[in-house]
Amino acid sequence: MIRIDISQIQGFISKDGIKALEPEVKESILKLENGNGAGNDFIGWMNLASKTESGLLDAIEEIAKILRDNCEVVIVAGIGGSYLGSRAVIEALSNSFTQLIQDRKNPQILFAGHNISEDYLYELTEYLKGKKFGIINISKSGTTTETALSFRLLKKQCEQQRGKDVARKVIVAITDAKRGAARVCADKEGYRSFIIPDNVGGRFSVLTPVGLLPIAVAGFDIRQLVKGAADMEALTTSKMAFADNPAAVYAAARNALYRGGKKIEILVNFQPKLHYLSEWWKQLYGESEGKENKGIFPASVDFSTDLHSMGQWIQEGERTIFETVISVDKVKHSVLVPSDEENLDGLNYMAGKHVDQVNKMAELGTQLAHVDGGVPNIRIVVPELNEYWIGQLIYMFEKGCGISGYVLGVNPFNQPGVEAYKKNMFALLGKPGYEEESKKILSRIKK
C-alpha cells in the first residue's frame, strides 16, 4: 500500500501532539461513515470505488473505443473537478512526449472550458481545423460560463467539419440525470451520455464517468484505477488502527502542524508527470477547507525544477509552511549517466549511476536541508506510477480531505465562496435578472 512517513515533523510537533488529535480524527471518520456530518448529502464518493458496477465500466469502455476509433483528437470540456481529475491521471500515466507524436495509438486529449481566453479558444479551434475530433462535455448544469461557452464553439465546429450524424456519434455528455441545459441538449441531439451522481461533488468526481471516460479514451486501465481506490477505501475505514490508516495519519499531521502555526502546505513532487495531480489536489483541499476564515493554504512545486526559483523562499522565508512530498519508488525507464573523457562539467562522479538515483539523492538532500531550515516534512511513498497506485493515492487524498475538513471544523463539501465572482461577472455582462447588481457595481466603479 501507499506509505506515509511523518517522522520529519517530530521536531516541530510532538508525538503527543499527533496522539491528541486521534479522537477528533476517529470522530471525523465516523461522521463520514455514518453520514451525520455537515455536507452529508455529498459523500457519495466515500464508497464509489467499491460499489462501481462492472456494467458501468463496460459502457464507459465501449464509448471510449468509439471515440478512439473515430477521433484523432478528443476535447474534454469542463472546469475544476470536471477536468482536473482526468488530466491529473492522464498526465501521470502518459509518456511525456506521446501527445506530440502524430501516429500515436490513442487520440490526443486536449482540454477546454476551464478558462475564458479568446486567444486560447481561437488557437484551439484553428488547431482542430481539418482534424477528426470529438468532445466530452462535462457539466452538471450546462450553464457554467467557461464550459458552456467552449462547448458552444466546439459543437458548432464539429458539426460543420464532420456533419451532424458523425458529430452525434463523437460528442458525449456527462451531466445530470434529469435536468439542466446539458441534459436537455444531450437528449435533443441524441448524444450518448453518462450521469454525474447527485451526491458526488465535482472535486471528488474523478472516479465517476467524469474522470473515467477521458482516462479510458486516453488508453488507460480504469478497472485498475478503481481497484486501487477500492483497496485504499478498505484501508481507511474506522475499523483500521489509527497508525495503519494513511488518510487518518495525514489528516492528523497536517492539522497538528496547522494548529502549531504552519498555515501553508506545499505539495512537492520530484516527477514532472505529477504536476496536474498537484493541481487537482490544490482544488480538492482549497475548495474543501478554505472557509470561515480557516484553512491551510494549498500550494505546490515541481522539484528539482522549482528549487531554482522557490527554493530560497522555502529554505529561509517566513516559517509558516510545511511540505508534503510525493515520493515515487520505482520509475518506468532506465537511463545511466555516461562517462565523459574530458569531464568538463565535472559529472564523472555520477557516471554509471541511474538518473533516478541522482533524483532520489536530490530528494533526500532537499528534505534534510528544508527540515534543518525549519520546514516540517510529510512524505507519501507511492510504489510506482500506474493506474492501481494512482487510484490509491486519489482515494487517500479524498478521504484525508473529508477527515481534515471535519477536524478543522468546516463543511468540506460545499463551496459558497465561488459564487461571488459569478454574480459580479453576470451583472457586468448584463445577464437578465442581474439588473440591480449591475447598478450597484457600476456605481462602485464610477466612485
Give, in spatial order, the strands making up the sheet with the most strands: 1-10-9-7-8
Shape descriptor reads: globular
Number of strands: 10
- What string gives the helices and strands in order? EHHHEHEHEHEHEHHHEHEHEHEHHH
How much beta, percentage-wise?
Answer: 5-15%
Using only C-alpha atoms, the radius of gyration works out to: 23 Å
**Class computed from helices, strands and strand pairing:** alpha/beta
Amino- and carboxy-terminal Cα gap:
59 Å
Major sheet: 5 strands, mixed
Contiguous uncertain segments of 5+ residues: none
Count of DSSP-assigned helices: 16
Mean pLDDT: 94
Please bin the fraction of helical residues: 40-55%
Summarize this entry quickly.
By secondary structure, this protein is α/β, with parallel strands linked by helices. The protein contains 16 helices and ten strands. Strand 7, helix 11 (275-289) and strand 8 form a beta-alpha-beta unit.
